[in-house]
Specification:
This protein has one domain: Beta Barrel (Lipocalin). 13% of the residues lie in helices and 54% in strands. β3 and β4 form a beta hairpin.
């Protein structure tokens, strides 16, 4: 939710040249949710990760952004201890790659200063030691200084260098769906 709110504030300020040219979005890890789902034979697997921190500075005039969202890869859990141990050891290798990051560099679209807006975020998604360019459709909601943003996107884990967790009769989809609900506050750059 922090990510979303910060993203909303970012977008709102970037859309209004009358506002300060640079603002900072601070995500709230306690309110931000990072969820994943993976289709598999018999059932889908659902789980969560925790946001460590996230701060983005934006330039309203150029629609550029700096900063990042940092997710704790070691916090991933699906509610099944054995499956989670395999995920961390064999797929994510979270002992070796303990963070997942999203670095934004720009966005497309117009952000309303109040209410909802639809935008596309551009940046680099880093996971398992690799960086991948992403375009993320996002819905942003702004209420005063509070921002919420929602996005979801596929991670083709095997294509991005991670092991496929298929085993014996278990078959899983080729990509994991990541859903982020970010929440944060907008502040002027000091």
């Amino acid at each position: 939710m922090r990510f979303a709110r910060s993203l909303h504030v970012f977008l709102a300020l970037a859309a209004c040249p009358a506002l300060a040219q640079q603002v900072e979005l601070r995500l709230d890890p306690a309110q931000t949710r990072v969820e994943f789902s993976l289709g598999a034979t018999l059932h889908a697997v659902h789980g969560t990760f925790k946001l460590k921190h996230g701060t983005i500075q934006i330039d309203a005039g150029s629609r550029k952004a700096t900063g990042e969202f940092v997710i704790d890869a070691t916090s991933g859990e699906s509610g099944n201890g054995d499956r989670d141990r395999r995920m961390h050891k064999n797929v994510l290798e979270s002992g070796k790659y303990p963070e997942i990051t999203l670095k934004l560099d720009r966005f497309d679209g117009k952000v309303n200063l109040q209410g909802e807006s639809d935008v596309t975020l551009h940046g680099q998604f880093s996971i398992h030691g690799g960086q991948h360019e992403v375009k993320l459709p996002a819905k942003v909601r702004i209420d005063g200084q509070q921002l919420e943003a929602d996005t979801q996107f596929p991670v083709p884990y095997q294509e991005w260098g991670m092991k496929n967790p298929n085993a014996f009769i278990l078959r899983v989809d080729d990509s994991v769906r990541i859903q982020i609900h970010a929440v944060g506050r907008i502040a002027p750059v000091q």
